[in-house]
Design a protein that fits this description.
The chain has 9 helices and 17 strands.
């Protein structure tokens, strides 16, 4: 295992021990103030990021951030406070502030820690190993070289690459501890690395921008800088000389990097906060079919090197592998303990969000879906915020490509795609196996049988 450049050795275990000891002290302080329940989160992050543009260094930033959050409950009254100052006087003031806030709040029947019997516990062999700790021994000079090489590969790919929006390299490591008055203490460490590039092609009125990036928990899993630059160039060049399309109904293919936005709208609609506020187009939908009967989505919190792997959620509740959608039927909602109590349900261990949601494929990759769609549109960019979470109405500006006879014909932009998310979910005809690993929403390309397209013709 490599060590981060700012340390002589991997001291993460010692730093986690210090954070755990700090959390225990803060919990004791909360009890001493009379809190009936309390929870504490402590975190540290170290990172390095560089940005270059047109062969010149624009920024180099080294960060060391930390944070402490304290939440107390006096019966059903809640107070929270936070600080980044670890001096004893500041920590004491943070606890006192949280307690003072709680005394001024109203009782909330749903307030409180998650139930004690739901807390995660290590198995016989300890906590699962997600293989998510891979610090990158990267100094500023090497980070700049990587970004410059990425940008140069893109700029050199074709004479039509006229400009650059820049390239970047970043690496970070994080340590976090969550502890509560049930006796739960959980500590985590993780690493995160990225390389990206954005380019501009063309001239005059025909100028287009696009890019590409790679993210991973381990440096070895990143795409190579030159490959990222060349792919950024390829994507940018493909957008040159767009033409309009006729208004009408078309099959629409969302490539994997765009398809996760559709799944994101589902997650927003079935999240506890939206449901108890009655601000979702999927109210009372658990147990009903909202997708085709072949489509399933499973949450896998234990995925090795998964971007959201975790043995517990942000309240300490034990996570579990489970179906969100099975054979087209919504199996459950996405709940933390507070929203679950508001709805009269039990937490699904999703305080803080879902963990590695996997959309099951029923087709080949992107190219296979293009060949099979006949005439339609591929959407590579979405613009605007035209999604109504309450009604499900969907209308967004888009750019992409026209497909005819199973092949991409020319780029298009200035179009609007519209529908209703309920209808769009039901109209999914295929999910590709070309999973984009750059998100905790792990889906391949998604083909919708029809959407309304306003082509600006």
């Amino acid at each position: 295992m490599n060590s981060v450049a700012v340390t002589a050795a991997d001291d993460s275990r010692e730093r986690l021990d210090r954070l755990e000891a700090l959390a225990a002290r803060l919990l004791d302080a909360c009890r001493a103030q009379g809190a009936s329940q309390a929870e504490v989160s402590c975190s540290e992050e170290r990172g390095l990021s560089v940005n270059v543009r047109m062969g010149e260094v624009e920024t180099v930033e080294s960060t060391r951030d930390r944070g402490i959050g304290v939440t107390v409950y006096f019966g059903k009254r809640k107070g929270s406070a936070s600080t980044a100052d670890l001096r004893e006087s500041s920590l004491e003031a943070t606890v006192a502030q949280a307690c003072a806030i709680a005394k001024f709040t109203e009782d909330d029947a749903a307030a409180g820690l998650a139930d004690a019997d739901l807390m995660a516990r290590p198995g016989p062999d300890g906590w699962p190993d997600f293989d998510d700790w891979h610090p990158w021994a990267l100094d500023a000079e090497r980070a700049v070289d990587i970004a410059l090489a990425c940008e140069a590969a893109g700029r050199d790919a074709d004479a039509r690459i006229a400009n650059s929006d820049g390239a970047s390299t970043s690496t970070s490591t994080s340590l976090s501890v969550y502890a509560n008055s049930h006796g739960f203490v959980g500590s985590e460490r993780g690493s995160h690395h990225s390389i990206g590039c954005a380019l501009i092609a063309g001239s005059g009125e025909d100028m287009q921008r696009d890019g590409w990036y790679s993210i991973a928990l381990a440096e070895a899993d990143l795409e190579r800088p030159a490959a990222i630059g060349r792919k950024a160039a390829q994507r940018t060049l493909a957008r040159l000389q767009p033409r309009p399309v006729a208004t009408g109904e078309y099959p629409v293919l969302f490539p994997a990097e765009m398809a996760r936005s559709l799944v994101g709208h589902l997650l927003g609609a079935v999240s506890g906060g939206a449901l108890y506020r009655r601000a979702s187009f999927l109210l009372d939908s658990a147990g009903t079919r909202i997708f085709p009967d072949w489509l399933s989505m499973h949450e896998n919190p234990f995925l090795v090197r998964g971007l959201r792997s975790a043995a517990w959620d942000s309240e300490g509740v034990a996570t579990r592998a489970s179906a969100l959608v099975e054979d087209g039927v919504l199996q459950r909602y996405v709940l933390g303990s507070y929203s679950a109590r508001k709805l009269g349900l039990q937490t699904t261990a999703n305080a803080g969000g879902v963990h590695n949601l996997e959309v099951r494929a029923n087709a080949g990759g992107f190219d296979d879906l293009v060949r099979g769609m006949g005439r339609g549109l591929v959407v590579t960019e979405l613009m605007g915020q035209g999604v109504n979470a309450v009604t499900g109405d969907y209308s967004r500006g888009a750019a992409g490509f026209l497909v005819e006879n199973g092949g991409i014909v020319h780029p298009v932009d200035g179009i609007t795609i519209a529908g209703n998310l309920r209808d769009m979910f039901a109209a999914i005809e295929a999910v590709g196996g070309d999973v984009d690993p750059r998100s905790h929403i792990r889906t391949g390309s998604i083909l919708l049988g029809r959407m309304t397209v306003a082509g600006g013709d």
